[in-house]
Amino acid sequence: MNFKSIKISIALLSVIFFQLIAYAQIADKIDVTEDNQLLGLGTHYILKSEILQEDRPIIISLPKGYKEGEANYPVLYLLDGLGNIKHQVGTVELLTESGIIPPMIIVAIESLDRSRDLTPSKAGQGVYGGVGESGISQSGGAPKFLQFLEEELIPYVESNFRTHPYRLLEGHSFGGLFSTYTLMEKPDIFDAFIIQAPALWWNKEEMTAKAKTFFKSNSNLDKAIYFGIGGGDGWGMRQELKRYVQVIEENTPKILRWKHEEVGDEDHDTSRLLLNYYGLKYVFSDLIADEELLSHYSDDAFLKGERELINKYGPQARRPLSNYVDIALKLLKEENKLGAIVVFNRAVAAYPKYIGLMTNLAKLYEQTNQKNKAIETYKLAITLSKKLKLGQEAALEKQINRLENN
Description:
406 residues, Serine Threonine Protein Phosphatase 5, Tetratricopeptide repeat
């Protein structure tokens, strides 16, 4: 490929980035009530629990397009759901639009008694948060709460919604303690964990003591785990978490994906927003193509990787758009236009709102003497332009007329 044609390829790809800037903010409508109150956080349900002998409120937030399609979705189970649902929905929607994470169902579990449900054992005299000499009298209910999740809540969700088998558990503070407990007590229930500022000081760091046996005896643990904490959190949290992850460092299972980080100077409560964001990005970081695919591209390897992601995370899973663009640009520099067409076809299917993908695909069809496919792709772009009011119809019609008259 000569220098001029490389410049042309780069110019073609730059159109996509322009379209990203111009059209990425086209948002889906949010339903409103009769008195014009915006909805969007989810629907409130009451689940009658025989195990806990009480009514449990939950909020279920469905991804965009759920009602219109037939796809199934991974499920994020969010502890302290009432306090975290607002920022959670916004972050999930933003990262989903960017292709950083797959679309998912959020099940936010409202806390009724955190000290009871999220603590794995009874707390004795002198425990932090205790009153007088009685400690925290209701503590130690995590085993029963975990039974509620496994035997009542998860079956309810999977019976009433289109779920994919991939499950993620997220919790902060006592919720992080419970998530750590769940990981080691019933590792098969969830595929991934976002553990934020966990209260691992609980009962003289009993979770860390348990970890020394757990990670040694689970050498084939196949999970994605994010341990995060604010850099300004108290030493009662940070040092305990460091001691826990040190156990993992010394006994790391072969295929475990995990990360521990301290974020900024955030304190215990304000860290939740950032830890949720970074945790989600890490758990789904395998959506980004690895160096092996980039350096040894083949159509078969690329499509196999796409199928594996869909099998793992559901039919709506996709790589970040910039990732597809990077792969295509590399292929064009290598004069592999047919390979670039394969990548663009997948990108168009994954990002049907980006007209720049369609126009570049059409140009590649033309350059590889596939005129009919080029015309068909331009027509799809016209339909999209009309739907989203992008104003590109005349320019696209001109390209079709040129091809039809040549």
